[in-house]
């Protein structure tokens, strides 16, 4: 898989957040993206309506560039947390955020700020566009990452999906996952 190391420092994500049960994540996350389309994309970009404050904040901060996954399970590790909880159909929840990098300005009702861990992040590019996202996501966690022990995700860290482009049906659509990394001790 194509990948690179990037550095994030002082980054906050602004976005719409929803608590989702792990056992419903594969259905509820895409459904939440549908809500995002109905709330922001459709009225502003398809129907050409003037944006309200919520929509303007989303536009100004690139909301939709990231899908952020975080939870309150103490001392969890995102590399094993999702696998354990999705695999057992756990009713524990995670917070899923459809967001963008906060550039300043007001944070409207219905959006929140999420500080991002400073430091090095592994940014992985999935091949095959959005149609291949779930398959590539599973392959990344189950096959690729275990073969690369040099990339260690710290405990209590969130992960991010990244998206770039407008035509999600295209096999050239760019997307992937980002995880914070730290050197093994």
Explained architecture:
This protein starts with a strand and ends in a 5-residue tail after the last strand. The chain has helices at residues 25-46, 53-60, 78-87, 133-144, and strands at residues 2-8, 12-21, 66-70, 93-101, 112-115, 119-126, 159-164, 174-180. It is built from four helices and eight strands; from the N terminus they run E-E-H-H-E-H-E-E-E-H-E-E. The model has no long low-confidence stretch (mean pLDDT 87). Strands 1-6-8-7-3-4-2-5 form an eight-stranded antiparallel sheet. The longest helix has 22 residues, at 25-46. 28% of the residues lie in helices and 30% in strands. The protein is of the alpha+beta class and 185 residues long.
Structural class: alpha+beta
Q: Count of DSSP helices?
A: 4
Mean pLDDT, nearest integer?
87
Strand content: 25-35%
Helix content: 25-40%
Number of strands: 8
Question: Layout of helices and strands, plus pairs?
Answer:
Layout: E1 2-8, E2 12-21, H1 25-46, H2 53-60, E3 66-70, H3 78-87, E4 93-101, E5 112-115, E6 119-126, H4 133-144, E7 159-164, E8 174-180
Antiparallel strand pairs: 1-6, 2-4, 2-5, 3-4, 3-7, 6-8, 7-8
Sum this structure up briefly:
The protein has 185 residues and is α+β, with helices and mostly antiparallel strands. Helix content is 28%, strand content 30%.
